[in-house]
Amino acid sequence: MMTEIALVADLHGNWPATEAVDRDIRARGIRRVWCLGDVVGKGPSSDRTFDWAVENCEFILQGNWDEGVGKKQFPNDQFYYDQLGEQRMAALTQWAFEYECFLSGRKTRLFHGRSTMPAPYGVHEDAELLAPYFLPDYDVVGYGDCHRQGVRLLNTQGILFNTGSVGNGLGVPMAQYVILRCEPDSRELAPLDITTVTVPYDREQAVRDTREAGRRGMHNADLFEREILSGVYARANGREKP
């Protein structure tokens, strides 16, 4: 039976963006949501995006920010530790790194990006760089992390797609996610649709939230503000890169 599944990733504590995606998913009548990680970090409202993901997603994969915050790897992240509290912090490192399933007869591999990938690769990187993620026998590979949506037929390997980012969309500074229309858990070949969705959201409120969090100690609040307004990745040294 054909079913629609919403795949979200990289919520990054941006509550207005997460709310907008939630409204869009509900308006479309989609009942199944999967999360490919990075629920927390970067943005000002990690507690709220964490709670939304736990309440609404069938599963959540562990992203590099989830791992870094959950394991308290970076001293500048104290803002997130205080905001999330012990129970949420403990949950972050319990999520799996990958999910495997069959969708419309295609063996599918889903993960966040890092730490499975060494860097946030986009879907248009060299094929030789991306082909190993189809090994040993995957037909479809989907991931997040690079914050840029895309779908690609990768030579003879199969279909590669990136969900984009809900809370920190690059290229297009909107909330981004993907809808899969497929037959879940079926090993019989059937149609598979991959639809990239961009959703406008209240970025002005997101900026206000970010500035307030910056006054309360959130690290690099100015850089996050630049990113959500411009859709361009910001670095503390002034350089920008995709």
Quick overview of this protein structure:
The strands form two sheets. A five-stranded mixed β-sheet has the order 3-4-5-7-6, with no helix packed on it. The chain has a four-stranded mixed β-sheet with strand order 2-1-8-9. The protein has seven helices and nine strands, in the order βαβαααββαβββββαα. With 242 residues, the chain is an alpha/beta fold.
The number of domains? 1
Question: Strands across the major sheet, in which order?
Answer: 3-4-5-7-6
Low-pLDDT sequence parts: 237-242
CATH architecture assignment name: 4-Layer Sandwich
How many strand units?
Answer: 9
Total helical segments: 7
Helix percent reads 25-40%
Proportion of beta-strand residues: 15-25%
**CATH H-level name... which superfamily?**
Metallo-dependent phosphatases
Radius of gyration computed on alpha carbons: 17 Å
The CATH C-level class name:
Alpha Beta
Specify the structural class: alpha/beta
Q: How would you sum up the global shape?
A: globular
**What would the average pLDDT be, to the nearest integer?**
95
Q: What's the helix-strand series?
A: EHEHHHEEHEEEEEHH
Layout of helices and strands, plus pairs?
Layout: E1 3-8, H1 15-27, E2 32-35, H2 46-56, H3 64-70, H4 78-92, E3 98-103, E4 106-111, H5 127-130, E5 140-143, E6 150-154, E7 158-162, E8 175-182, E9 193-199, H6 203-215, H7 221-230
Parallel strand pairs: 1-2, 4-5, 5-7
Antiparallel strand pairs: 1-8, 3-4, 6-7, 8-9
Helix pairs in contact: 3-4, 6-7
